[in-house]
Amino acid sequence: MGETSDFRRWDELIPDALGVIFTNLSLQERVTVIPRVCKSWAKAVTGPYCWQEIDIKEWSNRCQPDQLDRMIEMLITRSCGSLRKLCVSGLQTERIFTFIAENACSLQTLRLPRSSMSDSIVEQIAGRLSMISFLDVSYCIKIGASALEIIGKNCKLLEGLCRNMHPLDTAGKPLQDDEAYAIASTMPKLKHLEMAYHLISTSGVLQILSNCPKLEFLDQRGCWGVTLDNLFVKQKFPKLKVLGPFVLDTYESDGWDDFSDISDSSEFLAWDFVDGGVGEYYVDDSDSYDGMWDEGGRLDELHFRFYEEIEDAGMYWPPSP
Hints:
Helix content is 31%, strand content 7%. α7 (119-125) runs parallel beside α8 and α8 runs parallel beside α10 (178-186). The longest helix is centred in the N-terminal third of the chain and has 15 residues, at 65-79. With 321 residues, the chain is an alpha/beta fold. α7 (119-125) links the parallel β3 and β4. The protein is elongated.
């Protein structure tokens, strides 16, 4: 037998197999390193198996809206309808929300914190989000109870909801239970609910507990209008874990392990990539590499730069009064 018969060349693996392997790499490596190795790897990294889960939440906090939209469109297009998880922050335009919804047939986890979606946009796209089981619309100040009601009526599989608010957006405002009632009346399968610094009252929380019998976790830190009797909660809802309303330390969203694991922040180091022509998958001279990120429209030499993780003031909460 030949000298290399006992070894399988990596560049001979089928693209789907390579794509599955590449999912274990960071976003940075998939975008900038893998395409430079060889033609077969460059082709594989454009396939859907690399982009079934897209998490650019940290980077999206630090880029311009037009850059963010083009990045999202590029990566979702690569998923070819197989996208299961999308985590991105600060989306601004109606067009990008519509684009996400149009490609959401397999989407199960959707995190869109700090986005500028409105009730009317939610009404337009909610019908396409029927497979969603975990949704994060924290700090989305342009939506309200009507949007949550629409979401609940269309997302019948919803088991996790994050609807945290920033304390500066709610400080000094009167209690309002309309969102709590919307959740209670349309989301009976909820197991995980985060409503930190929300303007809900004890009545609103009790309404949720009464209508969401599967609830296992409730975050009500900073909800100063809520006064639940601990003994009552333990007796009435023995499987429920409640956090708050008192805040002991900085708020860290522990997410929900089954749905909301996030990428290692170490992948968001300073790096960049630049768009090239159609089919320019591989260039032997790395110094002359000009990329292969073209999906029916050039990125016009768009320059993306990822930064070291910095403190996000919006995620640090004031102590209890």
